[in-house]
Amino acid sequence: MTQAALSHAVSSFDLFLDRLKTELFSHPVITDNRYCTWFAGAAPSKDDVVDFTRQFSVFSNQFLIAQTQRVINAANVEEMRAAKEILANELGVVFRARQSDTQSASGDDVDPDIVGIEGTVDGGTFRFRAAHYEWLLHFAAPLGLGFGDLGRRSVGTPATLAFCDELIRLYGSDDFSVSAGAGFAVENWAAAGFWKQLIAGLESFNTSSGLDLNLGFFRWHDKIEDQHAAHTMAELKDLYFGPLDFDEESFIDAGRQMLDGVQVFWNGLDETRKLRRLS
Ligand SMILES: [Fe+2]
To answer: How far is the CA of 72 from the centre of ligand 1 (A)?
Structure first.
């Protein structure tokens, strides 16, 4: 690439970053998630926590479909492997430290407060009890929620199902720019701090109810997001300058639609908790 072409590419990347700032990061689900703000500060009741857990479990389970589609629709073998890392880890393959990592994880650990947040599933150990969904089941049990009360579409509200379907359509799309845009949006939503807000609300619920719910599922996801946020810019550059056909317009458009979907989910929970207080 000539010097002139290089500086043109760099300045168009800067313009792209500006667009992300104004068109994605300004989305209300990132800047002003009312349900999560309320949840963190208001000591939710048991009914609130039950509703939240049920809807979150539907999302967690349906996410496996979206992630499987991401594997199937991957644009190249590297993308396919990246998608498999997430899918296999969700299902219970504990990350194994890469040679370069300092952290080491024992293949026998299944507790979310102990198992690693980095490494690879390649050569990792599968444990049923390391599945994220099983952590969630474990969390939900003291609330009186069993396997049959959770995870399936029949217990999802229309808002939750609309979000899950958008996730499958966009995040799992066979159009590389669409799936990348939706993935980027989901990462930035997750890095905006909602896990910390959920943990804060659940900790105050534990204190007020005396139930001692196991928050490992939430703590593990919060830790992985903190670590992931640090890699986001490098990944974005790889996408933009990488070998795959990248369409900026589709990327941003898909990101925005994905964030709209996320907002439908949280708004659904927000309406449920407000309606309960009116009735
Ligand atoms: Fe997960």
So the answer is: 19
